[in-house]
Amino acid sequence: RLPPPRPRVLLKAPTLAEMEEMNISEEEESP
Amino acid sequence: RQVTVQRKDKDFEGMLEYCKEDEALLVKILITDMKPQMVSATVPCLPAYILFMCIRHADYMNDDQKVHSLLTSTINAIKKVLKKHNDDFETTSFWLANTSRLLHCLKQYSGDEAFMTQNSSKQNEHCLKNFDLAEYRQVLSDLSIQIYQQLIKVAEGMMHPMIVSAMLESESIPSLAGVKPMGYRHRSSSMDGDSYSLEGLIRQLGIFQGTMCDHGLDPEIIRQVFKQLFYMINAVTLNNLLLRKDVCSWSTGMQLRYNISQLEEWLRSKNLHQSGAVATMEPLIQATQLLQVKKKTHSDAEAICSLCSVLTAQQVVKILNLYTPLNEFEERVTVSFIRDIQGLLRDRNDPPQLLVDTKHAFPVLFPYTPSALSLETLHIPANLGLDFLTRV
Asked: Which of B116, B354, B159 is nearest to A3 (CA)?
């Protein structure tokens, strides 16, 4: 029995490279 | 070693609830501080399943920030662990298995019918309710490719120093020991003969295979790893053969053919024979045959040309030029014979370079591999210290 089809909200994700950049800047900010 | 189960599995929905404040601890336990041995006695890819069950609960609660935060922390933590252990095969294999499993879970429970065909009805009930995580699937797919490339790099780095001595210099056929071309002494690039024997190389392949299987890496990915590693064995051995007169002899041809057959036997014993690994060894197999066939008449030349279909004309001629008779009874290959071969191979459209590209990488594919595991039956070992997770 399949669940009734229901629209799901697309969760936007940064690319791997963008995540890397965000991660680097977070690390730079933290002492 | 199991968490006490207070309710029957059927009462669980295959989700794990956690407080937002515990996310950092969850990621620390499951990723940053995780050692593959800590979960070796459990279902393979346990961290991936636990993380997915946490994502499911955040999805169920319609909390997009929580889903986003956990996935981002997970991906960043995996990248950090891989960076820290960038020369460790076991860690890299473990995270390749878990990252690709998390990717498969995001597909299997996405609600997309294309990924649901092999699901049980219970698994279909466990599909994500609120969010489409297709963009995160792309990130995890990119990350899996990065980890695969690291895995190959680590394995190649470990195998590279073993290949020449194991394939060309070790004497695995006892009766051939000491049968060397005149004027050459045994040359070994290894400091420790034992560790670089053919047996040592095969033992190393077995360690790679056993580790990847223990971690629950998809068999299709394991096959691609061995195709790539066998390509390197072929390339490094053939390049050495093309540059060294002392190994271009009938006896090395014999020894090498025996060594390749041992590698083929190993692939068969591990059910990896259909991986394409044997085909990558074809140039080397043809080189061994070239060392062993008669090289005298025009019909010998024709036979060599049809035999050496994947060697370039330049490689065939080079091996014939380097060929060194074993003793005074065996003749050197004549200049006219080599000219005959060159004439026969003139029309081949070969690449200009003599040596094989040892760095060539086959494109990797991660075919979708759904799991038969029912999330509601998953048990979390108490020793992981995840008692802040609540089964829902």
From this structure: B116
